[in-house]
Amino acid sequence: MDEEFGQFVAARGRALCRTAYLLTGDWQVGEDLVQEALTRTYLRKRRLGSADALEPYAPEVDIGLAGIGETARTILDSIRPR
Questions:
Q1: Interhelix angle for 27-48 vs 54-66, to 10°?
Q2: Helix (H) or strand (E) holding 58
Q3: Is the pLDDT of residue 69 over 60?
Q4: pTM beyond cutoff 0.85
Q5: The dihedral formed by the CA atoms of 1, 15, 62 and 46, expressed in degrees to the nearest 10
């Protein structure tokens, strides 16, 4: 799963940063938010069970860390790739 996690970060890291920027309005704060979200996602990856579960989990952590709540979740759900 470590290799899968690396592939996930390579594929989705910039998109997570863009989302975090939209949530915070600051690139550096957004990047810090993504680092924390990816750390928490990595630590939980065994419980998530599969690499497919990483996709919805990491943005949720981003939103939780940003303290935005349900409005951001609704917006993110509408733009999240399926």
A1: 130
A2: helix 54-66
A3: no
A4: no
A5: -10
Question: Which residue segment(s) compose the domain that 24 sits in?
Answer: 2-79
Instruction: Say how far apart CA 81 and CA 33 lie, in whole Å.
Output: 21
- 3, two tokens: 């290799």
Kindly tell me the burial class for residue 75, based on how many C-beta atoms sit within 10 Å of its own C-beta (0-12, 13-18, 19 or more). middle
Count of residues making up the chain: 82
Domain count, the chain: 1
Dist. CA 17–CA 41, nearest whole Å: 15
Instruction: Return d(Cα 23, Cα 60) in angstroms, integer.
Output: 12
The predicted-structure confidence for 19-49, as pLDDT tens digits, reads as follows 888 877 888 888 888 888 888 888 887 777 7
What per-residue confidence (pLDDT) applies to 63? Answer: 64
